[in-house]
Design brief:
mainly alpha; Hypothetical protein af1432; 2 domains; 17 helices
């Protein structure tokens, strides 16, 4: 995927105080979750600009238009879902909550009143080029994982396809937050993995952060009371469930193919995907190549690649059918 140069463009940011980064691990997972419970979360400059343009026409804006601006940005999606959770009564049903339904329930006016001018990632990480690069890699991977997951769900005729897509898209949100708030620690993890590819990621994370990122992700999702189905689908400890398997395999393929399709781990992925889709393993690679393209505006630091005209439907579109039928 072609990346635009990482540069801070619009909107113009006020004189925010410089961020205070964590340079040492917190003592335990409870300390990490409490930190992120109150931590500021910046969003993509392109998303902030889109929201300001819509704010200027608030009286004419509907939930679909806001969804189009928010759904391309995992950080803004996270902020919206966690805000909506704070407004719910304890024990209320959250299974089918999506970005659009959250906006409808919250209301357009209350959304704009709560979410004022947003600080941008580009501003937040202006002096952290390695963190910007690390975060951009995750944004690209998240977009691809979401596309693969949606492709699997559509092929299986899964009624939860939209939430499956969202779960894969948000899978790396905890790692994104760590790049934003603890870039020095994340650089150490990256360098340790580069120095010895045989080391398990979880072991490196435990050594440097004191926690595993997957555990932090699940703890934050529960703390923020994110939609129940989203939390369940995102829990890879329940990978025997087909909807969870869609997410797990989508994230895995996006990671293994991030630098090309010659990764030695991919053949094992193809075997599992064939079983999930009840398909011939032979046609899985062509199916993945066919659906490996953006379904949304690509979230890119410093700019936005437009794939939709304003007013078009905002739900993720079904991927194209492969020329050779999966059987």
């Amino acid at each position: 995927m072609t990346q635009e140069p990482l540069q801070d463009t619009l909107p113009v940011q006020p004189n925010f105080p410089p961020p205070k980064f964590l340079n040492a691990p917190l003592p335990h997972i409870g300390a990490w979750t409490q930190y992120f419970l109150h931590a500021e979360i910046p969003i993509m400059a392109s998303t902030a600009q889109a929201l300001e343009e819509l704010r200027a026409e608030e009286d004419d804006v509907d939930a679909n238009q806001l969804t189009a601006a928010i759904q391309v940005d995992p950080l803004m999606t996270l902020k919206l879902l966690s805000r909506m959770a704070s407004l719910r009564r304890p024990g209320s049903n959250t299974e089918t909550e999506s970005i659009t339904t959250s906006l409808v329930l919250m209301g357009i006016g209350p959304f704009f009143r709560h979410f004022g001018l947003q600080r941008t990632v580009e501003n937040w990480l202006q002096d952290q080029p390695e963190a910007r690069q690390g975060l951009q890699h995750l944004l690209t991977r998240a977009e691809r994982a979401g596309q693969f997951a949606l492709g699997f769900a559509v092929h299986r005729a899964d009624t939860d396809a939209t939430i499956i897509h969202q779960a894969a898209f948000l899978n790396d949100f905890a790692e994104m937050l760590l790049w934003l708030h603890a870039p020095e620690l994340m650089v150490k993890i990256r360098d340790a993995q580069a120095a010895d590819s045989t080391l398990r990621s979880s072991a490196i994370q435990k050594e440097i952060l004191g926690v595993e990122i997957n555990d932090l992700r699940q703890a934050l999702m529960k703390l923020w009371r994110l939609p129940e189905l989203l939390v369940n689908i995102s829990d890879d400890r329940h990978a025997e469930r087909a909807n969870v398997k869609c997410v797990v395999l989508a994230v895995r393929v996006a990671r293994h193919s991030a630098y090309g399709w010659d990764n030695a781990a991919l053949p094992d992925d193809y075997t599992e995907i064939a079983a999930l889709l009840n398909a011939s393993e032979r046609v899985v690679p062509s199916f993945l190549h066919k659906i490996d393209h953006p379904i949304l505006e690509a979230a890119t630091l410093g700019g936005r690649i437009t794939s939709e005209e304003p007013g078009e439907p905002t739900e993720p579109k079904e991927p194209e059918k492969p020329e050779e039928k999966l059987d």
